[in-house]
Write a structure and sequence with these properties.
The two termini are 27 Å apart. The chain is an alpha/beta fold. It has an 8-stranded parallel β-sheet. The protein is elongated. The protein has 2 domains: 243 residues, TIM Barrel (Alpha-Beta Barrel); 90 residues, Sulfite Reductase Hemoprotein, domain 1 (2-Layer Sandwich), CATH 3.30.413.10. Strand 7, helix 5 and strand 8 form a beta-alpha-beta unit. The structure holds iron/sulfur cluster (SF4).
Length: 352
Amino acid sequence: MIKRRKTHTVTAGSVKIGSKHPIVIQSMVKFETTDIARSVKQINSLAAAGAGLVRLAVPTAKDTAAFAKIVQRAKVPLIADIHFSPDRAIEAIEAGAAKIRLNPGNIKNIKDVNRIIDCAKAHRIAMRIGINEASIRNLLHDTPARRRIDLMIKEMAGYIKIFEKRGFSNIVLSVKSSDVLRTIEANIAIAEKFDYPLHLGLTHAGLAEDAIVPASVAMGTLLQKGIGDTIRISIAGDPVQEVQIAQKILASLGLYHSNAPQLIVCPTCGRCQWDLVGFAQQVKKLLDKIDRPLRVAVMGCVVNGPGEAADADIAVCAAAGKGFIYKKGKKIAVIPQSKLLAALKKEIEKIS
Ligand code: SF4
C-alpha cells in the first residue's frame, strides 16, 4: 500500500485536497466559457465520469460573467484558470470559483497579486500556484535540467512567501514541464521542501495515443512515491478520457476505489485459436452495465489461461469449439463455444 506524503488539507468548495483525502481527479472544459450550455454539459459529464473539480479558462470579462452562470449549474466545484489579468482573477472569485489557478509570475505587479490573495481569503477559496517550466525567468535553451529545477523551486519558494506573508495558506502547488524526467524530479524536489498539497500534471502531453504513456509514467512514478494530491491528465481530445485515464492510473496503484468491474484479457499468442479480442469486446459491453467490483478474465487457451486467471472471479477460454468457464480458478462448465457468451452472462448475473 502506498503511503502518501503528509500535507496540509486545502478546501475548494465541497472538495478537500491533501494527504488525508482521496486524490482528486480534475479536468478542463474545452469549449469557450461563454458557450454556457456546452460548458455546463461538459462539466456535468466530467463529474459523472469521476472528476472532483473542473477548470475553465476565463480570458475575458465575458468569460467571468459566463462563469458566474455556469457555477450555478455545475455539479462539482469549479476552478478558474487565470493568466495575466488580476481583474479576471477577482471577477472569477466573486463569480463563485472554488479555486483559481494562478501563475503569479505572469501578474506583473505585486500589489495585484496581493489584491487577488486578499480577495481569495475573503471568499475562502483555494488557489493553485502553478509554475510551468516554460514560464521560468532566466531560462536559456541549454540551461541544464538540475538548474531548471532549482530555478522552479526558487520561484515557488518566493511565491509561497508572498502568500504566507499575507496570511493565506489554502494553496496547492504545481510544477510542470512537458519533459517526463524533469516533471518527476521537480515534483520530488517541491514535495521535499513544502508540505502543501501537490497538483500533478504533464504539460502539452499530446494526442491521446501519444500522451497516455508519458503521463502514466510521470504520474505513476510520483504517485508510487506518495506524491500527488490532485491529478490532471492533459490530452488533446475529449476531457472525459482524461478522467478515465487518471482513474486507471490511480486504480493501478490502489489509490482509487471503484465499483467498476475489471476485465482481464490475455495478450494472445500462437496458442490462441479463437476470436478472443472480438469476444472480449462483447464481454466489456456486458461489464459496462454492472456497478460492482468483479474480476472477469478472458483467456486465449486452456494451456495457460486458467492458471494465469486463477485470481479472477470468473474466467473463460475456448479451444477446439469448446468453451470453458472457471470460477475462482475451478472449472465449473464445458459447453459449446457458441454458447460461451450467454453462459458467461448468466454466471455474471448470479454473482452481481
Ligand atoms: S493464455 Fe494462452 S493464448 Fe493467452 S497468452 Fe497465455 S498462452 Fe497465449
